[in-house]
Structures are given as C-alpha cells and as structure tokens.
Amino acid sequence: MGLGGISIWQLLIILAIVVLLFGTKKLKGMGSDLGGALKGFKDSMKGDEDEEAKNLESKAEQDAGTAKTESKEESKH
C-alpha cells in the first residue's frame, strides 16, 4: 500500500491518464510556468527582506546621526 491506501499501480494508471489527456508538451509547459512562478515569488520575498534590512540600517544610521548632533549641541551650551 502506498499513500493513504493507493498502490503504486493505481498512481501509475492515474499518471498515464493525465499524460494522455494533456500531452507531454502541455504538462512540460505547466511545469515550467509553475517553476517560474515559484522562483518569482521566492525572489520577491527575498527582495522584501533585503528592503526591510536596508530600511532598518538607514533608520539606525539616522538615529545615530541625530544623537551625535544632539550631544554636540548640548556640549556647546
């Protein structure tokens, strides 16, 4: 028995029917489209993380610059 009571032979028959219905070209096209979509999603998620990290770094630099300016003004008084 395979997955949830489905044997390997039943899976092979289902695969054969799917190939006969859609054809190998269409299945290959759908697979490449799905792969491209997943890659695009992964890249956009990585881009969002990079953007957030840059925003945090620039905010930290601005806060550090503001703190230095304030300490210089206090020392002048």
TrEMBL record:
InterPro entries: TatA/B/E, TatA/E. GO terms for biological process: protein transport by the Tat complex. Its main location: membrane. Residues 40-62 have a biased composition (Basic and acidic residues). Gene3D superfamilies: 1.20.5.3310. It is found in: Cell membrane. The chain crosses the membrane at residues 6-24. The keyword Hydrolase does not apply. GO terms for cellular component: TAT protein transport complex. GO terms for molecular function: protein transmembrane transporter activity. It is a single-pass membrane protein. Residues 35-77 are annotated as: Disordered. Keywords: Cell membrane, Membrane, Protein transport, Translocation, Transmembrane, Transmembrane helix, Transport. It holds the Pfam family TatA_B_E. NCBIfam families: PRK02958.1 (NF002813), tatAE (TIGR01411). HAMAP family: TatA_E. Belongs to the TatA/E family. This is Sec-independent protein translocase protein TatA. The gene is tatA.
